[in-house]
Design brief:
13 helices
């Protein structure tokens, strides 16, 4: 099914108006007959079709009612629904859906006012899980968590892209201090990336990544905190590092999971630790693969998470809705149920501290 945007595609999909079984207008066959008999001159065809289109829309509005208005909210910067990609048969998402963005970097949003709007107390449609990437951004996450404790869950971690920056050992002490200061905080984003070459270098810093990942995994285990894992071109090594550990964190989140169904099943069935794994999906990363829906369908219902993996607060709502639709389709759920289920799963995952 093709992805369409704009008013024409939304009309076709029932996005603005419900489908109808009859139309009190000239059929195409009748139009052809009239043209052949020269009752309607060919030069009038363009005008005729324009009038027909206007009449059709007017009749639909009269018989079916106007499209439900999108609730506006000054304190919740949503992507306009016209930017939300619809497929044939999709219905208008409910703007009041509660969405838990289980993995993002919105502390890096270009305009901090957009994030502050998203975190207004009166807005109960969103919960955010902010992921640290390096020591230099941990303080921003800590400050936001202190100010908006009911709206977000903080995570502190060394992303594998920046593992080569670690030159001193006091980062471990700082990580422990922040985790003590924020009892609900997780460790993330951490992991392995077998293809990322840092700017200014000529090779993947893989051994440094493994060293820093192992250290953070041990801290998370020691302090009994969930972890959010980044894994690209490194599933074999990550699987081995996890399964051969004497102990692991209480919950393990494979964020924007890009593995195949077989790899997913290997994690889920891992001896001793299989029930600790959760799997998140984002439109930003996962919709590049045609196998994403098949993988989502294989995830246990209570281990599925919704995420944006974005840095710009203005783009979050549209990105979450796009991914939510894919999840709903893959699982055979309604959008409402998909939102409810992924919220409950995120609540469960982040309560395992």
């Amino acid at each position: 099914r093709g992805r369409r945007t704009g008013s024409r595609a939304m009309r076709r999909s029932g996005y603005l108006y419900p489908h109808t079984s009859s139309r009190p207008l000239l059929s195409l066959s009748l139009l052809a007959s009239l043209l052949l008999s020269r009752i309607i001159p060919v030069r009038s065809l363009q005008t005729f079709l324009a009038v027909r289109c206007i009449a059709l829309r007017t009749w639909k509005l009269a018989s079916c009612g106007t499209a439900p208005a999108i609730r506006s909210s000054r304190s919740f910067p949503r992507t306009p629904m016209s930017h939300w990609t619809a497929n044939e048969g999709d219905s208008m998402p409910d703007p009041s859906l509660r969405l838990w963005d289980a993995h993002n970097h919105l502390h890096l949003t270009p305009d901090s006012r957009d994030l502050l709007d998203l975190l207004q107390p009166e807005e109960d449609q969103v919960c955010l899980s902010l992921m640290g990437t390096r020591v230099s951004d941990w303080s921003a996450i800590a400050d936001l968590a202190a100010q908006h404790a009911s709206k977000l869950v903080p995570s502190f971690g060394f992303h594998p892209w920046w593992a080569h920056e670690r030159v001193e050992e006091d980062w471990k002490q700082e990580l422990r201090r922040l985790l003590h200061q924020h009892p609900s905080a997780c460790v993330g984003e951490i992991g392995l990336d077998g293809q990322w070459i840092p700017p200014g270098l000529d090779s993947v810093q893989y051994e440094k990544q493994k060293e820093v990942f192992q250290a953070q995994l041990e801290i998370a285990t020691e302090m009994s905190r969930p972890v959010s894992l980044h894994c690209v071109k490194a599933y074999g090594d990550m699987f081995d590092m996890l399964r051969f550990s004497d102990e692991l964190p209480p919950a393990i989140y494979m964020h924007s999971f890009g593995g195949k169904v077989g790899m997913l099943n290997s994690f889920v069935k891992m001896k001793k630790y299989g029930d600790r794994f959760y799997f998140g999906f984002s439109s930003f990363t996962n919709l590049r693969s045609p196998k994403t829906s098949q993988v989502i369908a294989s995830v246990p219902d209570d281990k599925l998470l919704l995420e944006s993996d974005l840095e710009d607060a203005k783009e979050v709502h549209g990105a979450l809705l796009r991914m939510l639709q894919v999840i709903a389709d893959a699982k055979g759920w309604t959008l409402d149920y998909a939102a409810k289920k992924t919220w409950e799963n995120a609540e469960t995952f982040y309560s395992k501290t």
